[in-house]
Every structure is written in structure tokens, then in C-alpha cells.
Amino acid sequence: MILVTGGAGFIGGNFVLDWLAEHGEPVVNLDKLTYAGNLNTLAAVQSDTRHHFVRGDIGDPALVAQLLAEYQPRAVLNFAAESHVDRSIHGPGEFIQTNVVGTFNLLEAVRGYWHELPAGRKAAFRFLHVSTDEVYGTLSAGDPPFAETNRYEPNSPYSASKAASDHLVRAWHHTYGLPVLTTNCSNNYGPYHFPEKLIPLVILNALTGKPLPVYGDGQQIRDWLYVKDHCSAIRRVLEAGRVGQTYNVGGWNEKANLDVVQTICGLLDELKPRDDGQLYRTQITFVTDRPGHDRRYAIDARKLEQELGWKPAETFESGIRKTVQWYLDNQPWVQNVVNGAYREWTDKQYPLQHA
Ligand code: NAD
Ligand code: DAU
């Protein structure tokens, strides 16, 4: 049994689906179901007896302690976070609450549980913290990609809150001996991605005839990784990562934002041409830049490859085609997000639990 937090979100949801499909070990899924949590993502495992969903907060130590005592997991994987940079600029409070205070409370509850485990299970236990490349700050054009040894230089409220959580995780290992692993991944894309982020937003806006907003000059660079590859990396780190180590995860896929948007437009022109015969790229609109916008991220994933033999399965070209096709094929999931129906259902079905 493993305990996953944030498993109704984009990456956590993909992780739970892939875990149950490929691994089979039961999962307790603790998710607060904020606006970013969507149980429709988990529809395929709704009646799977190996999946135990609990609506609750990682910052509720009594609830977490109760779940740990009840399910006795061999590992806790922490995906739960506020994750959107633009939201962190408009309202940083929730980011501090969940990403910093929430991670602290989670660590404390896990430490209490882990401390009482018998020796064998104690040694085998893992706390895997899912983090981001944004903690390293920004790169200039000629800089080498981020290695695990880079200094932390976070620039947004989001990345600062994730950096703080990484530091807490590190300290709980050094001070208390908690067997932790941390992964720092680059930008993910793929199925079930909430359409506030660049790639799903552009796909949906294109299909509904809306402007495709490109911040600033569109020459900011991100290093894109297909979400299923991130999930396979996490499984591998959980399986064989060295306790106390951090692993950078990336797909060697640096792309300028404008190129990403134009690629999506080209795929839609091929797969679902506009009724009026125009090209989707005519919808591209340059808008005001994000404050403090990091110019370039790039990940050096050699440690993960050399130590643990992990490699991504998708190139950007294969992954982005799959992604565009997924959004075309999964309109019910998309429409439930767009019209907000997923929230109404969530609130009716799952009141927030406390211990
Ligand atoms: P997401 O916003 O799609 O999902 C976050 C999930 O966490 C949601 O289901 C939400 O309901 C849940 N959640 C939020 N606050 C909670 C709380 N207090 N208690 C319990 N559950 C809570 O995020 P994502 O894109 O899936 O990212 C998952 C993790 O991966 C985050 O830690 C993020 O920082 C990290 N990450 C994301 C990316 C990316 O490109 N999306 C890249 C690298 C790392
Ligand atoms: O690098 C990993 C990070 O990637 C994760 O830690 C974050 O959780 C995740 O949200 C993502 O952050 P970004 O800010 O890079 O992702 P986003 O999709 O918001 O933006 C990608 C780039 O596109 C960024 O340079 C801003 C730009 N952008 C974004 C939006 C939403 C636009 O130009 N237009 C847009 O409308």
C-alpha cells in the first residue's frame, strides 16, 4: 500500500492511473479537491477496490495520522500543491499554506508514523516529495541546464514556496533520519491537464475560436516532459533512488513558448481544421508579460539516467501529438471542466474529511 497526496490533480491523477494499471499495489489517495482536483480524471478507477479516495488536507495532521495508522503505507508520495505560477502572483497565501505549512504538517505526521514502525519496515519506508525545476530560478541562453547541485534561486511566490518545501524535506532527513527522496521536474504536459496552463489552454482556446495568449515576446523557454514519463521517473526513483538524494527529471525538450503554440496550431490544422478554412495561428495574440517571468528552464537529467537507468519514452513531437489528440477525443472531460460541472459534483459527493 502507498499513500499518494494530490492524486486528483494533473500529475498525481496520471500517476494513480498508471500505478494501478502497471503496478497493482493499492493506493490511498488524499486530495483536498481544490479547483485543480478533478475526480473525473479518476473515473476509470472509481470502483477499483485497490483505490481508496479520501477528500482531505495534507495540512491536517490528525487526519493524515489517522490514515497512516489505518492503511500502514510503505511509502508516501507528495504531489499535493498549489501549482499555477500566475495564481501565485495574484494570491500567494494559499501557496504558503499548502506548499509550505501543509508540507510541514505532512512531514510531522509521517515522522510520527515512521518513528513507530518496526525496524524492517522503518528502513524500507520512503517519503517521496514531487518538486519542480523552478526552484533553481532562471537561465540565460548559453547557460548549462539545471543540475541537482545548482543553487536554489526561486523567483515567483510559487517557486519560493516549493523551494521552502524542498528544504523542509531535506531537513527532516538530516535531522530526524526520515528516508526521503526529492524529484525536481520540468514542465509536464499530457492528458487531464487543467486548462489554465499554456498547452491545454491553447488547445481549448483554439477550438473555441478564442485568442491564444502569448506572454511578452513568446521567446521564454521551457523543457517539456510528457506526464507519463514523469510518472515512470517517479516510480523508478521510489524503487531505487538513494535515500536523501534529489533527482532532476526532464526530457531534453527545450522549446520557446511561441514555437509550442505554433506546433499546436499546426496539429489542429491537420487533425481538426477550422470550418472557415483559416489557420489556427491567426488566433495568436501577444499579451502583457507575466511579472518576474523566468526566461529559460532546462533540466540536466543525467543523474537519473546514469544512476537509475531512466529515460523518457516520448519526444516532444510524439507527446504533443498524443496530447492534442487526447483533448479532441475526450470532450466530456473537457466540457465538465469548462462549465464547472466537475466542482458541483465534487462538493455534493465528497465533503472535506477531518479526523
Ligand atoms: P495540480 O494543480 O494539477 O494538482 C494539485 C492537486 O493537489 C489537486 O488535485 C489539488 O486538489 C490537490 N491539493 C491542493 N492543495 C491540497 C491540500 N492542501 N491537501 C491535499 N490536496 C491538495 O498540480 P500538478 O500539475 O499535478 O502538480 C503536482 C505536483 O508536481 C506539484 O507539487 C507541483 O509543484 C509539481 N510539479 C508540477 C509540474 C507541472 O508541470 N505541472 C512540473 C514539476 C513539478
Ligand atoms: O517548470 C515546472 C513548472 O511548470 C511547474 O512547477 C508548474 O507547476 C507548472 O505550472 C509549470 O509552470 P509554468 O509557469 O512554466 O507553466 P505555464 O503553463 O503556466 O506556462 C508555460 C509558459 O507559457 C510560461 O513561460 C508562461 C507562458 N504562458 C502561459 C500561459 C498560461 C503564456 O505565454 N500564455 C499563457 O496563457
UniProtKB/TrEMBL annotation:
The record lists the catalysed reaction(s) as:
dTDP-alpha-D-glucose = dTDP-4-dehydro-6-deoxy-alpha-D-glucose + H2O
Protein name, as recorded:
dTDP-glucose 4,6-dehydratase
Q: Which residues form the NAD(P)-binding domain?
A: 3-323
Per the UniProt record, the source organism is Pandoraea thiooxydans
| CDD domains, sorted | dTDP_GD_SDR_e (cd05246)
Q: Name one GO molecular function term.
A: dTDP-glucose 4,6-dehydratase activity
Is the keyword NAD in the record? yes
Top EC group: lyase
UniProt cofactor(s): NAD(+)
- Tell me which positions the record assigns to the signal sequence: none
Q: Which Pfam families match?
A: GDP_Man_Dehyd
Q: Per the UniProt record, which EC number(s) apply here?
A: 4.2.1.46
Q: Organism's domain of life?
A: Bacteria
Family per record: Belongs to the NAD(P)-dependent epimerase/dehydratase family. dTDP-glucose dehydratase subfamily.
Q: Which UniProt keywords are listed?
A: Lyase, NAD
Set out the biological process GO terms recorded for this chain's protein: nucleotide-sugar metabolic process
